[in-house]
Amino acid sequence: MRIPVLKKCCCGCMTVRTGSIVIAVFGLVCYGITLLMCLALITGLADWKVGLAAFLPEDVTRQTSVYTVADVVVAIVWIICDSLLLVGVLKMRRKLMIPFLGLQLVWLTLGTIAAIVLFVLFAVNSGSTIFVAVTAVVFVVLYGIAVYFFFVVYSHFKELESSPPPEDVKHAQESPESVPLGDARESSTKSPV
Fold first, then answer.
1. Which residues 6+ apart lie within 8 Å of 139 measured at CB?
2. Rounded distance, CA 19 to CA 7, Å?
3. Which one of 35, 44, 160, 186 has the minimum C-beta count within 10 Å?
């Protein structure tokens, strides 16, 4: 099965290169905020019972607070991968995009497994079918966006495959005598008159 390659992203509004930059910056902002929120929870500057957590049962809230340190680690890993993606796109270095693509693929796979397990647990243990339904809809929308982000970055990754490495481009621009080989031979064989 081949992975689809896009020519444009955001309904044709921008190139996949620009889309990859937007995705990297978006990821840096989101995971930066996540990191700050988790650090605020760890240091006691914030409380879990705000936002949607106020609607969760107490035992779920307690279990969730245990994973804050794991959230910090995940946020740091994503910040590193998004930073590498941004540098890779800006400097046209495909290899720097690989950590993002690999992590995104693993994340999508593990996210699917975790979502199935959580939906089953919530459906069995929770009396609120509305909560389960809303969670399922939110997951499907976010998962679809994440898959699309993967396709956009992968498409730019494949686009760079046919481009010359940045060193070759830089070398050709710096060389003052960019003479084709055939012309160089002719000029060296002619004697000055």
1. 115
2. 11
3. 44
